[in-house]
Give the backbone structure.
Amino acid sequence: MSYDRPPGLPIVDAKTPAVLVPARPVTRDEVAGLCAEVRALLEPTAGAGVVLVEVVGPGPPGLGIVDLLARLQLTARRAGGRIRLRDPGSGLRALLDLVGLRFEMEGQAEQREPALRVQEEVEPGEPAV
């Protein structure tokens, strides 16, 4: 049996990604539980391909949160998905850059070209600066 495709755009069921909010500071004992939670969220029955991780908490980020994020990303990739950071602070972004880890980020301003300098009018005969 055959049928014609209905006119117009196909209907897409948009899914919002699952959100994981680990409390800070994260202890070593909690890391295994959070990795298991990411694995469960990325199971084929859950239907999520991305898990949003909100890293919130008092104080500046440390290497403990970097270790957690690296382990969560590894767990997500092994499960066939990925994690995305939601609105990471500038301190966390700087720390991730320092250790060489790259993550997808939500709420991050686009990187644009630097603003051009103001061009001043030069009078003939003025010395170069």
Summary: The first helix runs from residue 28 to 41. The chain has a mean pLDDT of 77. The helical segments are 28-41, 63-78, 90-99.
